[in-house]
Amino acid sequence: MITIVLFDASIEIPPLEIRNHPAIINDAKRRGRDVDQILLYLPKHRFAMSKLNNFEKRGRPDIMHRSLLLILDSPLNKLGFLKILVSTINNEVFEFSPEVRLPKDFYQFEGLMVQLLKAGVVPPSGKPLIWKVNKSLHGVLEECDYKALFSENGRMITYEDWKKIIKSKSAILIGAFQKGEISKQIYELADDVFSISKFPLMTTTVVCRVLAYLEITASNEGIISEL
Q1: pLDDT, tens digit, for every residue of 24-52?
Q2: Which residue numbers in the chain have pLDDT < 50?
Q3: Which of 9, 97, 129, 222 is least surrounded, with the fewest CB atoms within 10 Å of its CB?
């Protein structure tokens, strides 16, 4: 079992200090929603967000959305090899069941995430498919034997590194934000810091490459027989 962590994911309802900004109010009104029923979204709320701390990391829930669709649809997930976690910009940790089927439409996904942020679980009754974990990310990762962080500042990963990841109870940490630096707290969680390319890559590209290399390594090492 490998734990995939998308960290610093920017899913948040517009903070109270900017909910009265025209960009927030007008966007909610256009969609027939209250301002606490939408997610902060940089393309629509840029002018309101400029006053927020750490705003360059915030307002891109679409990065998390696309990344989760890739992870959930991967053969490794369908074979039951993945545990999927999201750690948000506000230090909340959510787990996604490998069986959850997320909407491909972003605005349907937005409604689901608002429900999750408010209730802490989706669906609100019956078998949970997404739920809040009542531990910090540090607490969750204590269950893992080996933690690998992917960063453009890491050393280039080798096949031997992939073997170590695939043969351990590992966690893979991937940033789910568009700009900004990885925090010192995240670096301190990692046993190793790797790069997967000599070029800066989008989160979704990193996710694709990580999943592909994990699948190839698991197949080569006889851990899985077919994908």
Answers
A1: 999 999 999 999 999 999 999 999 998 89
A2: none
A3: 222
From its phi and psi, is residue 120 left (phi > 0), alpha (psi between -120 and 50) or beta? Answer: left
DSSP characters over 79-92: TT-EEEEEEETTS-
Do the Cβ atoms of 177 and 86 come closer than 8 Å?
no
Query: Helices 42-49 and 22-30, interaxial angle, to 10°?
Result: 150
CA 159 to chain centre: 25
Token digits of residue 152: 């453009």
Q: Are strands 93-96 and 130-133 parallel, antiparallel or unpaired?
A: antiparallel
Q: Bin 145: left if φ > 0, else alpha if -120 < ψ < 50, else beta.
A: alpha
Per-residue pLDDT of 89-121, as tens digits, reads 999 999 999 999 999 999 999 999 999 999 999
71 CB burial (10 A radius; 0-12, 13-18, 19+): buried
d(CA 113, CA 126): 18
The pTM assigned to this predicted structure is 0.95
Cα 61 from Cα 11, distance rounded (Å): 5
Separation of alpha carbons 21 and 19, rounded Å: 6
Domains assigned to the chain: 1-12+56-227 (3.40.1280.10)
Cα separation, 84 vs 94, whole angstroms: 9
d(CA 221, CA 223): 6
- State how far Cα 217 lies from the chain centre: 23
49's enclosing H/E stretch is helix 42-49
Name the amino acid, one letter, at 219. Answer: S
